[in-house]
């Protein structure tokens, strides 16, 4: 099932007995400069190597130019740097960013292949009478909506989802099957939770008794996701301990990511799979955090920071740019030798300083 935002508006629907999209339709909607036969029909997006006579593909780097002469695609989306190049079909769409164009076209093709959005409640859904659910929302089988929850228009709550008391789900949002929004948490418009995602789990907070036993700290804040946030499968976003956990507009979070309590993430930042963000860390806007990165608690990452995969961020990053802290893969024997050297770096530093000081004392005086 698709969200209402992806309706086709009456355009031809590939796979539903219609003959696909013409290049003329595509350019009219997405822009670009069309070269070739505007009446050419395409039915699928495919990689340039495997594309066939009914497919459209893209080429976004000049170094892949030799593939252009080999592809059997009906049309190719090309960058402006290759505006004079042509595939064997003679059909091309010239645009500033073929990859972005491909992304938008992929959404269109995907939307055309989905069944229509049909509001309503499945007979097995459990909706508390004190919940406020729009008549234009869809609630699938075995979903649970608790008292005080608000479900806006055009929302799709998938099978087996749970929306806690007083939670709010904004217009056009989609909760895929078995995702959870905890009590009091808020999702903006057009948010997406993939299956198994949990928004509003308890943060990891414990005080220690004198004997070392942990005493749980009640987590009384909530998690707030602004508009257009997407959360991957089996990702967890903890509620705040006192203040809220806040995820900014347009943030994209991959699968198996852990966002701890009171974390704040700025607009349009992306986090790849298996990232772990510790409590009260703040990540700026338009950052990209590579897969497997660990971010320590209570630090700050500036806007526009890129962090390479598997890096450990143990201090604040104050300036934009690309940072990498991963140790490269090597044979085990070399890794052991290099690791031993790293452990002695402070001693080597002191020895170098000592040698530099001795050299300075041995330098002959310069004539005046």
Describe the structure.
With 368 residues, the protein is of the alpha/beta class. The chain contains 4 helices and 39 strands. Strands 8-11-14-17-20-25-28-31-34-37-39 form an 11-stranded parallel sheet, with no helix packed on it. The protein has a 10-stranded parallel sheet with strand order 9-12-15-18-21-26-29-32-35-38, with no helix packed on it. The longest helix is centred in the last third of the chain and has 18 residues, at 345-362. The radius of gyration is 27 Å and the shape is flat. It starts with 20 loop residues before the first strand and ends in a 6-residue tail after the last helix.
What structural category characterises the helix and strand content? alpha/beta
**What is the CATH-assigned architecture of the largest domain?**
3 Solenoid
Q: Termini distance?
A: 86 Å
Question: Quick one: CATH superfamily of the largest domain?
Answer: Hexapeptide repeat proteins
Mean pLDDT: 93
CATH topology of the largest domain, what is it called?
UDP N-Acetylglucosamine Acyltransferase, domain 1
- Strand-residue proportion: 25-35%
Shape: flat
The tally of structural domains comes to 3
Strands, total number: 39
Range of helix content: 10-25%
Gyration radius (Cα, Å) is 27 Å
> How would a textbook summarize the main sheet?
11 strands, parallel
Tally of separate helices:
4
């Amino acid at each position: 099932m698709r969200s209402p935002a992806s309706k086709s508006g009456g355009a031809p629907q590939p796979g539903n007995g219609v003959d696909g999209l013409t290049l003329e339709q595509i350019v009219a909607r997405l822009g670009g400069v069309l070269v070739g036969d505007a009446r050419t029909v395409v039915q699928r997006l495919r990689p340039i190597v495997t594309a066939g006579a009914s497919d459209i593909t893209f080429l976004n780097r000049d170094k892949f130019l030799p593939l252009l002469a080999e592809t059997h695609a009906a049309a190719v989306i090309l960058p402006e740097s290759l505006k004079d190049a042509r595939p064997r079909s003679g059909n091309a769409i010239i645009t500033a960013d073929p990859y972005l164009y491909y992304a938008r076209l992929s959404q269109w093709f995907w939307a055309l292949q989905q069944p229509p959005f049909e509001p309503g409640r499945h007979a097995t859904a459990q909706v508390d009478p004190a919940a406020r659910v729009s008549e234009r929302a869809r609630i699938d089988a075995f979903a649970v909506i608790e008292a005080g929850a608000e479900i806006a228009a055009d929302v799709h709550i998938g099978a087996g989802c749970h929306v806690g008391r007083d939670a709010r789900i904004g217009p056009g949002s989609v909760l895929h099957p078995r995702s959870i929004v905890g009590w009091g948490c808020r999702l903006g418009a057009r948010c997406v939770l993939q299956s198994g995602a949990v928004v509003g789990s308890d943060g990891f907070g414990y005080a220690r008794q004198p004997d070392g036993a942990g005493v749980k700290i009640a987590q009384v804040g909530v998690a707030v996701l602004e508009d257009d946030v997407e959360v991957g499968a089996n990702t967890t976003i903890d509620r705040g301990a006192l203040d809220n956990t806040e995820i900014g507009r347009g943030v994209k979070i991959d699968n198996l990511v852990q966002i701890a309590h009171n974390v704040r993430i700025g607009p349009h930042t992306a986090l790849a799979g298996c990232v772990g963000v510790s409590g009260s860390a703040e990540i700026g806007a338009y950052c990209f955090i590579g897969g497997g990165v660990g971010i320590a608690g209570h630090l700050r990452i500036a806007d526009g920071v890129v962090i390479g995969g598997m890096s450990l961020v143990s201090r604040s990053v104050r300036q934009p740019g690309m940072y990498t802290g991963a140790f490269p893969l090597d044979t085990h024997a070399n890794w052991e030798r290099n690791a031993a050297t790293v452990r002695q770096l402070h001693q080597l530093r002191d020895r170098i300083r000592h040698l530099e000081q001795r050299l300075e004392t041995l330098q002959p005086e310069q004539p005046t």
